[in-house]
């Protein structure tokens, strides 16, 4: 059988060549040495990373704009904490459901086209949604925004992975994920300040669509879309979607880090959505403090932005919030880097999508809504007259106790990360060897009679 017709990767991401594999071993050692050396980065590669970071920035700006004006949204639609949390849940559910679809497409078709379509859809639905006057339709359009964002989030990290290797890849991914806290912070600020300036919270939703139009143009005409595995000189072909999923499920490092990141997503989803509201309620109970929710959103946004790097309202609670957000933001780039280097190139978009599905399904898809439901139940419990509007003290205590659930979930995430450490080195070495042996097959015709078998898992 012609060796070129055989797909060079197997379900467990490791190839064994019977006979002499010295050339593959030598190639592996050469590639590992190159991964630890900073190589020259071209201007177009810098531009590509910059474009991806810009889109990630406005992505998270849009995602947390509503959180900055949540009190106004609740008043206009006359909803409680439970339905307010449902808004974010609808967005995340749509996001996670469509992520595997875009992950499958991203491993097989033009990533430039998919990303341009997704960003355009997200911009259009955000803009239209800002004019919707009924809660049901408003929630529906927030779901469509999640569909658009899924197309980008599953694909962008794999482009960086295909452009760079080793330390350079890690640094570029760190730069890319740095846009998450900065974009989230801008979301709080833009949402609250734009709404306050226009005396209408809806104007906060009309900022990112215009930036999104610029992003679509940059994707189409400037961004580089490398071949899959280009940075590693990998010529591995994609396998069936069923084999991809089976391989990921059998990958301990990938699954454990995904479970750990699910706990992080649960906590960040709940805190990001309810954080400004919780701080606002707490400050209103302080004697002699007169503050508006817009001001709290501004401060919370600034703290979120600063926490991604390592005011006068820096009391002890704000300092502790800063420390907590720094700890949460340490995870993003590290988890992405781990997920990419324990998965072979033709499966990386699928891996990103699968991780998004897991982390959001059991993480921030339900955490804002769950906290809202618990808060509403506690309000009824603490109120002397449940039919009346709860006092500020009751609202604060109810939300405070509801948010305590995040502490226990985060501890579970730490345990999963510790267990991941037991497998990560071994799984990375499997992928390195699979890539090197696939390249050796392409460059050494003398191995044309070699037999490839899957290693026992």
Automatic annotation (TrEMBL):
InterPro entries: MFS, MFS_dom, MFS_spinster-like, MFS_trans_sf. SUPFAM superfamilies: MFS general substrate transporter. The chain crosses the membrane at residues 43-61, 83-105, 117-141, 172-191, 203-223, 254-275, 321-344, 356-378, 398-425. Keywords: Membrane, Transmembrane, Transmembrane helix, Transport. Pfam families: MFS_1 (PF07690). CDD domains: MFS_spinster_like. GO terms for molecular function: transmembrane transporter activity. One of its GO terms (cellular component) is membrane. It is a multi-pass membrane protein. Residues 48-457 form the Major facilitator superfamily (MFS) profile domain. The keyword Membrane applies. The keyword Cell cycle does not apply. It is found in: Membrane. It comes from the Eukaryota. Belongs to the major facilitator superfamily. Spinster (TC 2.A.1.49) family. PANTHER family: PROTEIN SPINSTER, SPINSTER. This is Major facilitator superfamily (MFS) profile domain-containing protein. It comes from Leptidea sinapis. The lineage of its organism: Eukaryota, Metazoa, Ecdysozoa, Arthropoda, Hexapoda.
């Amino acid at each position: 059988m012609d060796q070129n017709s055989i797909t060079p990767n197997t379900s467990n991401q490791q190839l064994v060549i019977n006979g002499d594999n010295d050339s593959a071993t030598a190639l592996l050692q050469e590639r590992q040495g190159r991964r630890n050396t900073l190589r020259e980065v071209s201007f177009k590669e810098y531009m590509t990373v910059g474009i991806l970071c810009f889109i990630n920035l406005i992505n998270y700006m849009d995602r947390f704009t509503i959180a900055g004006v949540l009190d106004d949204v609740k008043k206009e639609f006359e909803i409680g904490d439970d339905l307010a949390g449902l808004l974010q849940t609808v967005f995340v559910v749509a996001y996670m459901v469509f992520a595997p679809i875009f992950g499958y497409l991203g491993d097989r078709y033009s990533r430039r086209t998919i990303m341009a379509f997704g960003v355009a859809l997200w911009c259009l639905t955000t803009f239209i949604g800002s004019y919707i006057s009924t809660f049901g339709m408003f929630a529906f359009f927030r779901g469509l925004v999640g569909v658009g964002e899924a197309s980008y989030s599953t694909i962008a990290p794999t482009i960086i992975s295909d452009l760079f290797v080793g330390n350079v890849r890690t640094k570029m991914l760190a730069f890319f994920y740095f846009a998450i806290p900065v974009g989230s912070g801008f979301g709080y600020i833009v949402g609250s300040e734009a709404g306050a300036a226009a005396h209408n919270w809806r104007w906060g939703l009309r900022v990112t669509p215009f930036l999104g139009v610029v992003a679509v143009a940059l994707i189409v005409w400037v961004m580089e879309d490398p071949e899959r595995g280009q940075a590693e000189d990998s010529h591995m072909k994609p396998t069936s979607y069923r084999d991809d999923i089976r391989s990921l499920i059998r990958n301990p490092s990938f699954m454990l880090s995904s479970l750990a990141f699910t706990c992080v997503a649960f906590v960040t989803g709940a805190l990001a959505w309810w954080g400004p509201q919780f701080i606002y309620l707490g400050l209103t109970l302080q004697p002699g403090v007169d503050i508006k929710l817009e001001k709290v959103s501004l401060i919370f946004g600034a703290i979120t932005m600063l926490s991604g790097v390592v005011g006068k309202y820096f009391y002890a609670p704000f300092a502790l919030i800063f420390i907590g957000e720094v700890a949460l933001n340490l995870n993003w780039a590290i988890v992405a880097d781990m997920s990419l280097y324990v998965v072979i190139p033709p499966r990386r978009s699928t891996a990103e999508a699968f991780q998004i599905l897991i982390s959001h399904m059991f993480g921030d898809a339900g955490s804002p809504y769950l906290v809202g439901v618990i808060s509403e139940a506690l309000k009824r419990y603490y109120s002397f007259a449940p039919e009346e509007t709860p006092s500020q003290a009751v609202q604060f205590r109810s939300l405070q106790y509801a948010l305590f659930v995040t502490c226990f979930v985060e501890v579970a995430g730490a345990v999963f990360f510790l267990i991941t450490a037991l497998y990560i080195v071994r799984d990375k070495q499997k992928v390195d060897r699979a890539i090197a042996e696939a390249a050796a097959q392409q460059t050494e015709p003398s191995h044309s009679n070699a037999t490839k078998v899957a290693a026992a898992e």
